[in-house]
Amino acid sequence: MKNKLFEKALAEVPAETKVFVRKYTDIVDRINYLLKQKKLTQKQLAERMGKRESEISKWLKSGQNLTLKSIAKLEVALEEEIISVPKPEITYPTWQRMPSESFKITLKTSKENQFVTERFETITTKDLQSLDPSLA
Amino acid sequence: MNTFVLEIWEDSFEQVTFYTVRWESSQESETDKFFSRFLQGKEEFREDFHELVALIEDIGNRKSAKPHYFSRQVATISELPPKMKVKIEELTLNLTSNRLRLFCLRVSDHIVILFNGGVKTSQKTQDSPDLASKLRDAWDFAKVILEELQDSYGSINLDNFSRRIIDDKGNDDQIIFER
Asked: Average pLDDT of chain B?
């Protein structure tokens, strides 16, 4: 059964608000998981951070903004990442001399240090020497 | 003696069934009153309302009703036996300065009863003019419901598998209570 008022309200929620709320619940889950995993109470966390327990409680429970800076402080105190940003793909060439005058160029992309794609191109010695004179 | 109905408010979510309460003489449930008010309400509370709606959807579909999504306890129903001490909680976004509060009874990770709510304008919920009477109403509704849920002598039971509250006649919707 779908509640009509709720459906109408949900249709009006901007996409960025939905994303924000999802990030919020993910962060709250992560913090609570780390506190449990490390068997830490809010009081012990507060002591690690040099703060009063009420301040930590306000961060975690009441209406006070949890900023990026405060998340960074929590990460240090918990010795774990709370949020992470996907690393960009890195593309870099390697080359090897082939028996003929051409070189095989291998372009490898690295996503989080794992090779996921390869592309091969063949260029002439002359092309390569224009890029790197040491190969003459 | 006032009669109220415990009824399903929204059960199309993957993780949570949301119930609400409605006075038998009223057409509108307590939660629908909250939604009607803020759907047509001031622009001032629009963003806060959107955040709360998005939170209900995220809890309902993705996360389930874990305790840490709900704000600090507002009242404990002390007249009940210890094992049935359950808190009335506020559903609000803790990471922002969201001014809206929706009172609820988190029965389990998969069943939540929503009541009414409003705007928090003071440090303590019970000191906010818009919230005080709604909190008292929520407490009264919850007390009656929980008294019926305790042990196997009460007239209603939880079925966490189907995410339903079921009365002794097998009904899981439109359960009538008197308070």
From this structure: 83
Which amino acid does the sequence have at A58? K
Q: For residue B146, give the nearest of B113, B171, B101 by alpha carbon.
A: B113
ipTM: 0.86
Cα distance between residue A131 and residue B6, in whole Å:
77
Out of B11, B58, B92, the one facing A25 most closely (by C-beta) is B58
Q: Is B123 helix (H, G, I), strand (E, B) or coil?
A: coil
Collapsed DSSP state (helix, strand, coil) of residue B125: helix
Q: Looking at domain A4-78, which CATH architecture does it have?
A: Orthogonal Bundle (1.10)
Tell me which chain A residues have a C-beta less than 8 angstroms from the C-beta of B57: 10, 13, 18
B19 beta partners:
B8, B113
**Tally of residues, chain A:** 136
Interhelix angle A15-37/B46-58, nearest 10 degrees? 60
pTM: 0.77
Option in B35, B62, B98 nearest A9 (CB): B35
Domain ranges of chain A: 4-78, 90-135
Going from the C-alpha of A7 to that of each of A57, A98, B57, B74, B99, the distances in angstroms are 33, 65, 10, 28, 22
Tokens of B83: 């094992």
Structure tokens at A88: 């960009």
The edge-to-edge listing of strands for the beta sheet with B87-91 is B75-76, B87-91, B100-108, B111-119, B17-23, B3-10, B175-178
**Best of B34, B40, B45, B50 to mutate (most A CBs within 10 Å, chain A):** B50
Three-state SS sequence of A99-113:
CCCEEEEEEEEEECC
Domain borders along chain B are: 3-178
- Amino acid identity, residue B158? L
Q: For tokens 């224009």, name the residue.
A: A130
Residue A54's pLDDT band, with cuts at 50, 70 and 90, is confident
